[in-house]
Amino acid sequence: MASPTPPPPEQPETSTTPEKASEPPTSTPEEPSSAEPTVVTPTNGDWQAIFSPQHNTYYFYNTVTAQTTWENPLLPQPQSQPEAAASSSSYDAALAAGIDPSLAYLDPALSAPAGSSSAAYTSTAKFNARTGRFTANDARDPTHMSEYERAKRMSEFYFDVGAWESQRDQQQQEEEAEGKKRKRPSKKDLDRFKEQKRLKKIAKTAWLRT
């Protein structure tokens, strides 16, 4: 057999309507007079939400202490002190900047907490030029349709473009390094070059002396 539903707690507002007077009082279990009163601390699992058709809302009943309340005991308590400190700091900052304190919330610099970092949050996004929709950051950019990129994609069907480019860069680096290491010709080398040039000139005009 199901236990009877506990009655809802009385409304905190005072009213003179007959309906409020007819509400049953909150029932508490009677304990024997010989037993000492024990203090029971309610936990989160002991609360039950019960709907009250008369008030068209829910009230909360503790199965251990038989306590009823209109406020949800499972919700965290609001922290009013940090909010008050933040509001007072924004009020002082607005007065110092010559701004109406009632409009201080419109300025992000005044509404931000004092202990937060001064660096502003920034973000970047790409948009499609035709549709105007957001585009992923790793999506294709306009350089995808450039002449170089199109030629590269067509050449990849026949050979490895990446390997060819790396090989070409390596060759250029080797040539530059070799050019830097090239030594100046010595005096013996200059004399040899002059002698070779003289012999070559004599060979060209040898038929005139025959």
Automatic annotation (TrEMBL):
PROSITE patterns assigned: WW_DOMAIN_1, WW_DOMAIN_2
Domain WW residue range list: 41-75
Biased composition (Low complexity): 12-38, 77-92
Compositionally biased tracts (Pro residues): 1-11
Ranges that cross the membrane: none
Gene3D superfamilies the UniProt entry points to: 2.20.70.10
Biased composition (Basic and acidic residues): 187-196
One Pfam entry name: WW
Cross-referenced InterPro entries: WW_dom, WW_dom_sf
Protein name: WW domain-containing protein
